[in-house]
Amino acid sequence: MVKVVICGAAGGIGQPLSLLLKQSDLISHLALYDVVNAPGVAADLSHINTRSIVTGHGKEAMDEALQGAHTVVIPAGVPRKPGMTRDDLFKINAGIVRDLSEGIAKNCPGAFVLVISNPVNSTVPIVAEVLKRHGAFDPRRVFGISTLDVVRSSRFVYELDNSIDPRSTRVTVIGGHSGVTIVPVLSQISGQKFTKEQLDLLTHRIQYGGDEVVKAKDGAGSATLSMAYAGARFTSVILEATVAGKTGLVESTYVNLYADEESTAAFRAKTQLEYFAQDVEFGREGVSKIRPLPELSAYEQTLLDAAIPELKVNITKGTAFITDASKI
C-alpha cells in the first residue's frame, strides 16, 4: 500500500493536484484532508477508473488522514491576493503548516513531506523544526516544491525560441522559491545565447510569474493550476524513486542541505545557508545526492549574491516561528 495524503485537498491547488495524482498507478490510497469539502472532492474523484481508492477527511479527522502515509503533500493555506506579498502570507500559513507537521510527526513520522504552502523558503524550515522536536526529522525526506519555477522557465524560454522542446528542456533553478531568491540558470541551456535584454526579461518573469497570475485573476486567486501541475510532477518523481526504485531522476527542489552533508559542506561554510534549492538526485530514501552548483555566468552570480541575504532572512523567520515565538 502506498498512501499519499493531500493536506488542503479541497482548495485551488489541492483539487487539481488530487485529480492529477488520481491518475498515478504508483498510488494505492489517495487520502484527501481539508477543513471543508474534502469528502465531496473525494467522492467525485473516486469515480475515476484508476486503481487507487480515494478517501475524504474533514477538519476533525487529520490523524485518520495521515495515519501510515508514505507521502504527504501540503498545498494547504490561503492564496495570495493582489498587493499581498509572500511575507504577508507567513503569519497565516505558518500556523497551518506547523499544525500539519505535528500531525505528521504523530501519525507518519517516516513520510516524505512535500511542501507547497507559501512562503516555501520559510515553511520548509517550520516542518523541519517541528519534526526535530519529535525526533522525526530526516533531511532526505522533506522538500519544498520549487518545480513551478522550473516549469515556468522551460515555458518562457520556449516562447522566445520555438526550436526547443518545452517538455524535455529542464532548466536548473537554484536559490529559493520567491522573488529575488529564484535564480534560473539559463546559461546552461544547450545552444542558447540570450541578450542582456532577454535575460532581464526572462529572469524577472520567472521570478515574478506568480504576480502575473494574481493580477490576471483580479483578486480571484493565485497560480493554482500551474502549481498543481508542478506539484504533481514533483510528487511523481518522488514516487518513481521511492516506490518504483527508478534511478537517475533529477529535479530542482528546496531542501535542507544536511540531506547530503558531505557534498554541501563547502557551500554551507561559504554561504552559512542551511536550506537551498538545487538539482537533487533521488533514491529510495528521498535525497540521494545534492548536485554541485552548475557553473554560473557573471549575470547569474550577481543574482545568487542578491538571493543569499534574502534567503537567510526567510529561513531564520521560519525556524524562529517554532524555536522562539517571541522573535515573530
Written description of the protein model:
Its EC number is 1.1.1.37. Pfam families: Ldh_1_C (PF02866), Ldh_1_N (PF00056). Belongs to the LDH/MDH superfamily. MDH type 1 family. This is malate dehydrogenase. Homodimer. This protein has about 325 residues and is of the alpha/beta class. The protein has 11 helices and 11 strands. It has a 9-stranded mixed β-sheet, with helices on both faces. Strand 7 (about 175) and strand 8 form a beta hairpin. Helix 4 (about 85-105) packs parallel to helix 5. The termini are far apart. About 50% of the residues are buried. The mean pLDDT is about 95.
Low-confidence stretches: none
Name the helicity range: 40-55%
What is the total tally of β strands? 11
Order of helices and strands: EHEHEHEHEHEHEEHHHEHEEH
Helix/strand-derived category reads: alpha/beta
Number of helices: 11
Compute the average pLDDT: 95
Quickly describe the structure.
The protein has helices at 14-21, 38-45, 62-66, 86-107, 120-133, 147-160, 196-207, 209-217, 225-242, 261-271, 298-323; strands spanning 3-7, 29-33, 53-57, 71-74, 112-115, 142-144, 173-175, 182-184, 250-256, 275-283, 286-290.
